[in-house]
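Subject: Interface between my chains keeps coming out wrong

I've been trying for a while to get a sensible model of this assembly. When I model each chain on its own everything looks fine, but I need the whole thing in one frame so I can look at the contacts. Pasting all components below, labels as-is. Any help appreciated, I'm running out of ideas.
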Amino acid sequence: MKNCFGKRVLVTALALCLCLLQWQAVLLPVSAASVDVTTPSAAASAAAEEQNYREVKAEYVQQQYPTAVDTITVTPEMLMTGDKAVTTQSGIADREAPAFLWTKETKAISFTISVPTAALYQVEMDYYIPEGYAAEAQRRILVDGILPYTEFNEVAFTRWWKDASAPPLNNIGDEVRPAQEEIAVWHTMRVTDSIGLDAEPLLLYLTAGTHTVTMEYILQDMALGEVRFVPPLTYPTYAEYAAVNHQAGYTAGTDVIRFQAESTEHIVMKSAASIAQVNSGDPCNEPFNMKNIVLNCMGGTSWATAGQTIVWTFDVKSAGLYKLAFWVQQNGNDGLPVYRQIAIDDQIPFREMLAYRFDYDKKWQTRTLEDAQGKPYLFYLDAGTHTLSMTVTMGELGDIAQDVFDTASACSEVLQKIVKITGSSPDTNFEYELPDKIPGLLYDMQQIVDILHDCMDRVQALSTIKKPSMVSTLNMVSSTFEDMIERPDYIPRMLDDIRTAQEQLGTWYTTSQSLPLTVDYVWVAPEGEKTVGGRSSFWRKLLSTCYQFLVSFTRDYNSIGGVEGETSEVLNVWIARGREWGQTLKELSDAQFTSEYKIAVNVRMLPASQLEAGAVNALMLAVNSGNVPDVALGLASTSPVEYAIRGALTDLRTFEDYEEVAQRFHPQSSVPYAYRNGMYALPETMDFRALYYRTDIFEEYGLKVPDTWDEIYTSLLPALYQNNLEFYIPADYTPFLLQHGGSYYTEDHKASALDTAIAYKAFKEYTEMFTSYGVPVSANFYMRMRTGEMPIGVGTYAEYAMLKTAAPELMGRWAMAPVPGQLKEDGTIDRTVGGIASTACVIMNGSDAQEAAWKFLKWYTSTDMQLEYGRNLESYIGVSARWNTANTEAFVNLPWTEDEIGVIRYMWNWVKETPVVLGSYMNGRNVYNAWNSVVIGGEDPRTALENAVETINREMQMKQLEYGE
Amino acid sequence: MSRSVAPAAVPNSKKKRTLQWHNDIKGYAFMAPFLILFSVFTLLPVIIAFVLSLTSYNMIEAPQFVGLRNFTALFMDDDIFTIAVKNTLIFAVISGPIGFFMSFVMAWLIDGMAFKKTLSLLFYVPSITSSVAMAVVWMYLFSSDRYGAINDLLMDLGIIMEPVLWTTNPDTILPVVMIISIWMSMGNGFLTFLAGLKNISPAYYEAARIDGIQNRFQELFYITLPQMKPQMLFGSINAMVAALGVFDIAVSVAGMPSPNYAAHTIVAHLYDHAFIRFDMGYASAIAVLLFTFSFAVGQILMKVFSSKDM
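Reply #2:
Try treating it as a single job with all components included. I did that and got this:
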């Protein structure tokens, strides 16, 4: 007690010091605090620094920067890699001037420009993309090592396409989409916003002096010609344009031109192969056929993404002033308008054509390009051939979409702040007093509400119907936040609502970018000419609908056959996939396989589950009745052996060149198709395992991507839990078992190998993940990754596809890494995982066209075919249909980014697939049951595993007895 | 019934017999469409199942005769079959009678209410909807994470802290499946009972009232129930067969096979052997047992509900 006083003084002094420090901390950022009430974390502010074009452009306007007057040209010889000049070559695609062929070996190039006076520029480039995968090329552009704004992150270089022929007829007389041909020539483009939020090419402010511009490779090889920094394009208003025409003494033209928008003769170019002719069953369309499908319109949902362009050509005989009118239907976005940028001969004639609005209407309409008073715009066209291009752009919706997007991010931030205090599953009975603990929380929420209300008003103003669903969604989200502001005590209970809100806003943003327009025909006519399309009467519609209904009884929609030319044999191919897959396969096989081998191919589509063992399926019934197809595609990886055991499949080893063909695949992906000494299937698609994580959150909390499970247990999980975040791992025993050096079966495949000490150790670790370390047993990883609550987890190709295509707001904010592994004694990390085999293709034993079937499989799995198949699928259906082919060479050539394919290839070294053996269905089932008993039932892991082994072994023995092993 | 008695009663005259034969032929001709379909699609498969139950048949290669081996294996070696029988019996004992009882009560209540037709329709709708589609709706309620409606409600009320894993936890799977299947199967019995209730002549109630019946419950016990015996018989057999045959709801709720076989019914076991393990012979043996069992139960129910005059 003697030292008591001294101690007190010391403590008080310390406390004072601390107080002062705190005080300083409070004092210093006063100015910042008044703007942003909450203190943003490091990562958040870093993200805020990265401006988007809208913000930058506002600044440009505010600063009244002058526009450039002269062009700065960068020739290919001036491009550098590192400190060396790049190798240029002439003659690339008939270009006499030298150009630089930029393959992925060159990560980045740079060049210097000297700017005479500070001014606004636009960037123009000559490029050529060699024929290849459907994806556009992408590059990142940095000026002086800094990203000018986010739009420069992914500058897209479009590939151009055209139909190879008019739509051909299939066997039932329907028109099908024509094959696509790439127009691989040199193109010139100005850098524009790829989402179409802004209709004009992007402006870039360059100060006077020298600048180093760097371009980084992201996707696809391409050749680069000149890069030019050019004065921005300016557009006259219509009044000015008309005045010029008037002065020139132009008079009304005399031609009346009407052409079909879907006609391949008139379509010269499309910016995507997926922009296609569509069928409209409304008799008012031309041409119309009650019996068969005719592709009588252009566009529709296939022409809805910003930047997608269609270029038509038409001839004018007499020069003069013409109006443009379209027979269109715009019923895509409930009540909202769509916009098209219209250019004549590649030039936007006047400002009003930058984003011309097409209002929503369910009925077919004549839309004349006209001003607000309904007076048609008149274009001067001289005699000769002209082009008309229409490009999807977001128009007035762009600004709103941007606001909604920002709000979605704001929701995520609000949620993360709350979760930091409450955890992702708050105690609803506890009063967290969130508004006190998170200063500015209610202010942020009010901000969200205000912006949303503003957006609602703006959307409503654009809409032609009373209450479009797009407004209702925003209304729902905003009322959620209004509720929370009203009763802050309820916020912890409403976390799910914030998650839903974020999800809804994200979906809203994606939906708002879909701007479909269906065009049937186009008029180019003098002003006085009457241009009205004929709408069809009720009776005509009724008649055609009834007729189509009756016809539907006589048609087989699931089978595509019909072959032209001479063929010796016919192959029946069953494919457990949707119509587009079947159609694409049929087109390719007709074009390549049938013409080369003179073997006709009939494709029959079946629902996905119909070819799998373990269900009442068509293939088994077919085998049963002796009426088998020759080839079946899309079988689940466990099915082939089940059929093979019972003698229904052909052993592919009987074909001489099997080994050669097998080289196309990852060796492990064939493992599940081996039975005894035979090989009963070729891999068709493959999967991968990877660790997905949110880079922004990892940066914010200073987390490290784990390499081993130990790192996860000791450092990652505690760090995550401290911040109320979670880790995701699917209930999959395989990586644990394999990484400990175990396997599911003994070497002779006759018994379960789960009775070893290794297996037990692995099983214990696996279950402890859920019992001791509290990793959630069931969760929607993709959803929670999106909201940021589960910033890291193990996933497959499915997660990749979802993150890539369905979560636009996460673009650039997540990354892939190898799956964590076990640290071995020698210091290496064993990352072995399973799950590479996905679907398979087989030849049926009952088929009498064995050789032909093998030829077909060889053709089907070849690199070129797989690449083309994947490309066509992606162009027809979109990125979501990315074809994860099992052909390794083709797989690598899919448009992955370098980081992604790096991880995937690395994981290929660590794949070990589990064979399918007699009675192996009992394995997965019992391992799951054992897991369930331990994790949910609280049973002892050893007992649970031993029970499982016993049951597995009994079943295996029974099956071995039955099939004589 | 009268026809089968007729030949005995009529004197043995050739003419009459020919006439009888002509009449019979007409009768059979009218029944023929049904008889043919019935024998081809019901009778024949049952017989084939009996035959297959004595073989080892993998659906692709020809069946091999194995005698009673399938049955001995089923009774002696198959632990999971025991679980399946247990689950099925629990089902039959609990959800059969509950479904039966509830559909009767509902029919009785609704019969006396306004908007009878609308209400009947509402009760019948679940039975005509696909069970898989219905399961989707129920999965929304019983979803295992905190997004599930029931979990959410219970957590809001503070009854539970952690979400209940309704369809993963073996303890809760069976009750969940029961609730859904009771709800779905009620419609059929309900409709039968409603028809039965309409069938009773109001004269009985009038007469009874004169004879001194006091309230609706007495009406129920003394008139309604005895009058409805045929419908009760039909309803009970229906409920029983439905309970014994529960399968697709269980699969859509808990998956196939369900965690630790918690919702593994006899039909699920049958499916497992037939289509996952390709053991058609064994599956047929299970089918034969199930058939025998439901037949026996049907007979017992007949005994209980049938009156002497039937």
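Reply #3:
Confirming on my end. The longest helix of chain A spans residues 396-422.
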